[in-house]
Specification:
The protein is of the alpha+beta class. The protein contains 6 helices and 9 strands, in the order E-H-E-E-H-E-E-H-H-E-H-E-H-E-E. 43% of the residues lie in helices and 28% in strands.
């Protein structure tokens, strides 16, 4: 994608010029301030403007190339969930692309994030999934959390869950955040950090 630089006497003017040229609203564009150039008589602001649709396509193309270079065929669906873009990679080799406990998905996310950060010097929030693995995993973890919470509330004994990454631990914490009977706590060291579900003290 070609970098587009826009200028103005102020940042607001530069942004306005970018929005006019890109025919976009401000919430559809990511603005990166590049440089402030000053002379004896005036000042000029240069910004890089990227539409979110262009950036989304660039990430999709990047992921497609990586998967193809790994020797696998795939399609990539773009979904929006809770205002966040999700790239769902559809492939018959899903087990390889998912990896143990989703580690290959995490690696793909790291590569795509680094590409965007290096090229545009921005942090752009998005998610990657393979054959809806994360969505299905989320449902299973929420059920596990509620089932375990009932057991802990009844036995009054804490239970340690299996080691999980930060994303999966957050699912457990969120599922039980309003529980009247238990509390959750992350313990251990990465990469073996896990959630403990404990009974609330009376």
């Amino acid at each position: 994608m070609e970098n587009k630089i826009y200028t103005g006497k102020t940042k607001e003017e530069a942004i306005s010029n970018a929005l006019i040229d890109l025919n976009a609203k401000q919430d559809e564009v990511i603005i990166v301030e590049q440089e402030t150039k000053k002379t004896l008589f005036n000042k000029k602001i240069e910004i890089l403007a990227i539409t979110k649709s262009e950036l989304n396509k660039e990430i999709k193309d990047f992921l497609y190339k990586i998967v193809k270079d790994m020797g696998f065929d795939c399609n990539i669906e773009m979904k929006t969930r809770d205002t966040q873009i999700i790239y769902n990679i559809i492939s018959s080799t899903s087990s390889v692309l998912i990896g143990k406990n989703g580690k290959t998905i995490d690696a793909l996310h790291t590569l795509a994030s680094q590409m965007i950060s290096t090229k545009y010097n921005i942090f752009y929030k998005f998610n990657i999934d393979v054959n809806d693995y994360k969505n299905q995993r989320k449902s299973r973890l929420e059920k596990l959390a509620k089932y375990t919470a009932k057991d802990v509330a009844k036995s009054k004994q804490p239970v340690n869950l299996e080691p999980m990454n930060s994303y999966e631990r957050r699912i457990i914490h969120n599922a039980l955040t309003n529980s009247k009977d238990v509390i959750t706590q992350s313990e251990g060291e990465e990469p073996n950090r896990y959630v403990v579900i404990k009974p609330k003290e009376d």
